[in-house]
Amino acid sequence: MRLHPVTPALLAERLADRIADLRPADGGSRVCAAVDGAPAARPEALADALVEPLRLRGRHVRRIRTADFLRPASLRLEHGHRDPDSFYDLWLDEGALWREVFTPVLPGGDGRVLPTLRDPATDRATRAERVELPPGGVLLLDGPLLLGRAFPLDLAVHLHLSPAALERRTAADERWTLPAFARYEEEVRPAEAADVLVRADDPRHPAWTG
Question: In this prediction, what percent of the chain has a pLDDT beyond 70?
């Protein structure tokens, strides 16, 4: 797979062009896109950088951070605070994402999504009110381990880190998650599953499939 060097700013502009041109495969009127990557790759930064370019292209955007859709601590930490298999299988509340985020924007939905479910720091419900994503809008998610879950994504971007870069850039207190990302590479092969691959070993000098 050939990758092309690109500046971070140009990457955001080109991705915004591609997302703005998308037409949902299911015949709906709203687009679902996601930036997938380990926390060390900072997928939230790229997703945030897409918001203004998309708005300048006339698309309403709703940002969803999957960190705000974790299961309660009593469930996700049942096997301890540092269990990589739990991190992989149990942390993300997929049911809540489907119910509160995806279903409302799919055909027949009213477009009213829940922007946050649970504060990851306090483990308490945020009690957020629903917000509308009008027809023609873009639902833009970010987070780790998003591919291979059958989410209804019209475009999936994967930020790839080599094993050495992933270990080097992962904070010391989060290195217990590294086996989960090794499992992700083996089971899901996100570089192949994604629509767009971005090599992010050096965040100042990314390269992408174009």
Answer: 99
